[in-house]
Amino acid sequence: VTMLGAPRASSSASAALAAAVLRGERAQLAKSITVIESKRRDHQVLGAGVLAHCLQDRRGRARIERSFRVGVSGPPGAGKSTLIETLGQAYLRDGVDSATMAQGEGDASRRRLSVLAVDPSSNRSGGSILGDKTRMPELARDPRAFIRPSPSRGTLGGVTRSTQDVIPLCEAAGFDFTMVETVGVGQSETAVEGMVDMFVLVVSPAAGDELQGVKKGVVELADLIVVNKADGDFVAAAQRTVSDYGRALHLTTPKNQFWTPTVVSCSAVTGDGIPALLDQFRAFRTVMDEEEAGSTRKQNRRAQQRVRYLRTMFADRVLDLLADSQHFSSEWAEKQEAVHRGDLSPVEACDQLLERVQFAP
Amino acid sequence: VTMLGAPRASSSASAALAAAVLRGERAQLAKSITVIESKRRDHQVLGAGVLAHCLQDRRGRARIERSFRVGVSGPPGAGKSTLIETLGQAYLRDGVDSATMAQGEGDASRRRLSVLAVDPSSNRSGGSILGDKTRMPELARDPRAFIRPSPSRGTLGGVTRSTQDVIPLCEAAGFDFTMVETVGVGQSETAVEGMVDMFVLVVSPAAGDELQGVKKGVVELADLIVVNKADGDFVAAAQRTVSDYGRALHLTTPKNQFWTPTVVSCSAVTGDGIPALLDQFRAFRTVMDEEEAGSTRKQNRRAQQRVRYLRTMFADRVLDLLADSQHFSSEWAEKQEAVHRGDLSPVEACDQLLERVQFAP
Question: From the list B61, B309, B315, which residue is nearest A319 (CB)?
């Protein structure tokens, strides 16, 4: 019998790191993220320990509960980085307070912003989204912003998994507004939508009525669609694209009953439309702060996201462990090959594999 | 330590049942399906044994490899049952042979048809799709057709899982053409698309440019879109709907490089457009019979489907076992609640749960 359990992290090491994170020390936050993103099991355990300490800390917990998380997705070339740069500065200047927010919570001096990237496709798209911080030069210079390029680990699962844990860690460190950027490849948008409060789809003005390879499933995920680059020669095209996406949204089953997604245009370069965009953030946040069954919608949504994450992660990791296990990898490979050839039915292969799984009492 | 392995079925019982299935005995085929769909573990094991024997049988294997599987999906009221009734009769009369099929394979006297239903939503839609065989009166009377209403077990997973095993069983019994009907609720279409060679979306003529609640993701799955009920007063509306879906397809990323989905209209009642629809089936089947990397596209697609099914089923069943296990159900529930409340991070809960999973050597 092979035990697959994780070694317990040294509680003191993770407690020390968590304390530094809670004090807002950027270097220690960065280090904590690095261990969470590491492939080394002992690092991962240390990272999980840091997160656990932050959740157990009253102040850390309160910060996580107050925060606002926005996913920013869209096809390559939509100008996501520039938009995040502009939005981030506008946020630090004007905030995105919800109408129901308590007095003082929106204190401008406490505004902090983190930008994370989920980029499963940087190999394909020819460059990491955020590998180069110079794509957001103003924010990169601003001490109130924390920009974290994501390591490109190839698998969506790996990057996603860690990002989902990195968000609350940044929040515990005081970064109260998080933007998670992802390039659209279908799977990554769904993953990001499952870890944010609001999902924004960014597109550029299109020629004709093409939706530029944006999958319909992604349009359905959007709480807001932003047509960027509505400046200069593109103003008219942007307006047409707003109509096109408006129509696409109209044909779509609404994601929530309490919010009707809209399409807005803006220019990250000229700043046109940015205040209206922030107004949309505020309106959405206000709706998410409303109570529903004893908690706010945001709390309910996050609770569901966490449980879904647990279930997905558990299923993934059991499969990973099976594939990696010294004792099982060959059997797993054999069974898959037999099923691929058609010699063995999936149901029989599954039964045979499950016979080898046990639960310790 | 709790062993989760399945008891081995009596090999003689499953062999006897498999032999009867291979002889084409309908009652024994029905019985085999019943045990596969049963919730009882010993039944399921017997069913898996029958399927295993059929796969090991040279003739059974050859029949499975020759068959053609079509998924028929669409919103309630699109006339799927009537269309399947008409298509089924047209198939028995005219066949859907691929252009590359060997001589004699398309022998009209050997044509057999099975109709299966995946209906996770019969509670919601107010009635099982096929619970009432009188919805396909002609086929129900025809000895060359085998109609199998699906038990409505509530969960998509359960119904799907068994349907995926039922298809090859019907094929081993000589039913060489299978139509799998499902009502559209998003998840079920994806599941059905993952078990058929060709996925057909059926809609009715729409008033206006609404896509009648058909999710865009489902449009993307379609190899063919059929606007049914193109008769009487609806001919013009059907033509508009053909254009609407044509546009929707145009905006969609093609599923395969070797096949461009199209939209056709027909009337299951008058028979208009049915021959053209069968031509689409033949054209698609011909393309799927072409070689790609040493096997036919159909073989490759099915091999991938089987492996995906194994992985999904294994992950599902590990989670099910965890939730059901006497030793673990309370811990699993506790962990989920702690994660829901936010007291425990998903990553930590996952680690703690994985510690309890072991693989026998």
Answer: B315
pLDDT digits (tens, 9 = 90+) for B42-98: 898 899 999 999 999 999 999 999 999 999 988 778 889 899 999 999 999 999 988
In the three-class reduction of DSSP (H, G, I as helix; E, B as strand; rest coil), residue B125 is classed as helix
Task: Tell me whether A254 touches chain B (CB under 8 Å).
Answer: no
> Is residue B152 within 8 Å of residue B123, measured between CB atoms?
yes
A346-354 and B156-172 helices, crossing angle to 10°? 130
Q: Give contacts of B348 with chain A, Cβ < 8 Å.
A: 48, 51-52
Please give the Cα distance from B114 to B176 (Å, whole number): 8
Complex-level ipTM? 0.76
For A17-60, the DSSP string reads: HHHHHHTT-HHHHHHHHHHHH-SSHHHHHHHHHHHHHHHHSHHH
Q: Return the structure tokens found at B147.
A: 């109609």
Question: Chain A residues with CB inside 8 Å of B358's CB?
Answer: 1-4, 357-360
Task: Return the structure tokens found at A51.
Answer: 């997160």
**pLDDT tens digits for range A122-151:** 433 334 444 445 678 899 899 999 998 765
How many whole angstroms separate alpha carbon A351 and alpha carbon B51? 13
Cβ atoms within 10 Å, residue B50:
31
Give the mutation candidate from A3, A298, A341, A350 for the B interface (greatest B CB count, under 10 A).
A350
Which element (helix H / strand E) includes B200? strand B198-203
- Give whole-number Cα distances, B181 to A27, B120, B150, B158, in Å: 57, 11, 10, 16
Across A18-27, A179-188, B75-84, B342-351, least confident range? A179-188
Inter-chain CB proximity B307 and A5 less than 8 Å: no
Measured on CA atoms in the order A151, A154, A155, A156, is the torsion positive or negative?
Answer: positive
The β-bridge relationship of strands B224-227 and B198-203 is parallel
CA atoms in the 13 A half-sphere facing the CB of B42: 2
Cα angle: B240, vertex B245, B249; to 5 degrees: 150
For the CA atoms of chain A, what is the radius of gyration?
Answer: 22
| Cβ partners under 8 Å of residue A165, min gap 6 | A36, A47, A48, A51, B345, B346, B347
Q: How many angstroms separate the Cα of A218 from the Cα of each of A190, A282, A295, B131, B216?
A: 7, 22, 28, 35, 9
Phi (first) and psi of residue A228, to 5 degrees: -85, 175
